[in-house]
Here is the input.
Amino acid sequence: MSFSISQEVGKKIRRIRKYKKISVEELGKIIYKSKATVSKYETGDITLDIDTLYAIAIALNVQVEQLLHTEPKKPSPLMLNMPNTFFKNSNRFYSYFYDGRINKLIRCVVDIFPQTNGVGYKTMLYMNVRDFDQYWQCENSYSGHTEHYDTLTALILTNQATPLEKLTINILASFLESEQKWALMSGVSFRPFMPIALKMLFSRCPLSENQDLINELKISKDDIRRMKMYNMFAIT
Here is the structure.
């Protein structure tokens, strides 16, 4: 089967448009294109130009990177001079945390793009994902950037729907090779409204969602011991 980037981008546009309950005709009116033209964009029969791609992203209220096709396991050309790290040979990651408010395991997807925004690598976080095959169908999505340092990687993100909500995710020892990494996420909760910090597990591949994973993600006796020692919530 031949692979077409135009078809893959078109599929993403169609899925996001339908998810947001926008018709082909409505999208066409917003971007000043005919219904037939929009349909051909979605099937890949017409290759999208950059201006139209940005116009569609604005119309769908998403970042343009969300419409692009990215290979999950592909080295970033801008990271080739980096040491052999957890982030070097992948640009899609799966992360998990446990939400004690609803007693539920929360799955997330992180896409890190090769483009930079002058500060770091452009990044998207999709939180509370229903299905990894259609991970953009999620409860909340965040955009921002990732900064890589010798001993730390930091993701700085903003909720696309509620800019008040900011997230910072810090991952230690990202220069070491591993399939999984622990992270500390800090930000604001709206259920109820309060600042929070919690531990996340990042992985290059989806993990088995079982009780063992849940137990790892819950605050442990060692976590409490460190909290008492430092008077801080720390992830090592």
